[in-house]
Amino acid sequence: MATIAVLGAGKIGEALLSGLLHGGRSPGDLLFTERHPERAAELESAYGVTGVTVAEAARRADLLVVAVKPQDIDPVLAELAQALRPSSLVVSLCAGLPTALFERTLPEGTPVVRVMPNTPMLVGEAMSAVSPGSHADAEHVRQVTDLLSCVGKVVEVPESQQDAVTALSGSGPAYFFYLVEAMIDAGILLGLPRAVAEQLIVQSAVGAATMLAEGAGHPVLLREAVTSPAGTTINAIRELEKHGVRAALLAAIEAARDRSVELGRAHEDSERA
């Protein structure tokens, strides 16, 4: 079985390690890098996976998942370029950074696959979008798809669509959490205890998501099934429309897309400077 190294053990890196272990991967097949020794020790204790340097990961791993923040990518790529094996596959989870950036820095011909996952990876319910770089072929995409299928669902998209994916599903869980938080507050406003309001809303969210996932119908039809003439739901929908909630969501996701584009451009500008 291939050795996999996760470079950067932040929230998404740890989520991937945890998900891979829950998906049946052996701790002996996994490595990770972490620049803070206390954090590395914590992860080794929690998961039984070995922490290594970037150079050692490059020498030992068949597949390297780069999960650092975009602003931290330069030193990681510099270390990888010095030690990367010719047969290694590099997978980028870095928001906004194109595969071309990796290909310019790493040895000629290095296959790179760009991925936009999200944090439900921690519970095995991630939504990940993959895009191959110029040196990655269908087999490389299959390897990455198999890897990520252990922690959720995977879709392949052209790299030109990755900024939109970042805004929609990469940041998407935060939008749902925001809405759930607001609805719990509404329950408290109406006189419910916080614990009761939370249980009501969280289970309602789980049930609604399950109906969507199992193909119970288009979202419009499912909403209409709850919306009786002159009933409570239509009055609530009227208020949502009056306050521009739909337009606000569209604008928010567009703003997230624009920020993803900016992250990529900012790195390109810093390279030229």
Automatic annotation (TrEMBL):
<dbReference type="InterPro" id="IPR036291">
    <property type="entry name" value="NAD(P)-bd_dom_sf"/>
</dbReference>
<dbReference type="GO" id="GO:0005737">
    <property type="term" value="C:cytoplasm"/>
</dbReference>
<keyword id="KW-0963">Cytoplasm</keyword>
<protein>
    <recommendedName>
        <fullName>Pyrroline-5-carboxylate reductase</fullName>
        <ecNumber>1.5.1.2</ecNumber>
    </recommendedName>
</protein>
<dbReference type="Pfam" id="PF03807">
    <property type="entry name" value="F420_oxidored"/>
</dbReference>
<feature type="binding site">
    <location>
        <begin position="67"/>
        <end position="70"/>
    </location>
    <ligand>
        <name>NADP(+)</name>
    </ligand>
</feature>
<dbReference type="GO" id="GO:0055129">
    <property type="term" value="P:L-proline biosynthetic process"/>
</dbReference>
<comment type="function">
    <text>Catalyzes the reduction of 1-pyrroline-5-carboxylate (PCA) to L-proline.</text>
</comment>
<dbReference type="InterPro" id="IPR000304">
    <property type="entry name" value="Pyrroline-COOH_reductase"/>
</dbReference>
<feature type="domain" description="Pyrroline-5-carboxylate reductase catalytic N-terminal">
    <location>
        <begin position="3"/>
        <end position="96"/>
    </location>
</feature>
<dbReference type="InterPro" id="IPR028939">
    <property type="entry name" value="P5C_Rdtase_cat_N"/>
</dbReference>
<comment type="similarity">
    <text>Belongs to the pyrroline-5-carboxylate reductase family.</text>
</comment>
<dbReference type="Pfam" id="PF14748">
    <property type="entry name" value="P5CR_dimer"/>
</dbReference>
<keyword id="KW-0641">Proline biosynthesis</keyword>
<dbReference type="GO" id="GO:0004735">
    <property type="term" value="F:pyrroline-5-carboxylate reductase activity"/>
</dbReference>
<comment type="pathway">
    <text>Amino-acid biosynthesis; L-proline biosynthesis; L-proline from L-glutamate 5-semialdehyde: step 1/1.</text>
</comment>
<dbReference type="InterPro" id="IPR053790">
    <property type="entry name" value="P5CR-like_CS"/>
</dbReference>
<feature type="domain" description="Pyrroline-5-carboxylate reductase dimerisation">
    <location>
        <begin position="159"/>
        <end position="263"/>
    </location>
</feature>
<dbReference type="InterPro" id="IPR008927">
    <property type="entry name" value="6-PGluconate_DH-like_C_sf"/>
</dbReference>
<keyword id="KW-0521">NADP</keyword>
<keyword id="KW-0560">Oxidoreductase</keyword>
<dbReference type="InterPro" id="IPR029036">
    <property type="entry name" value="P5CR_dimer"/>
</dbReference>
<keyword id="KW-0028">Amino-acid biosynthesis</keyword>
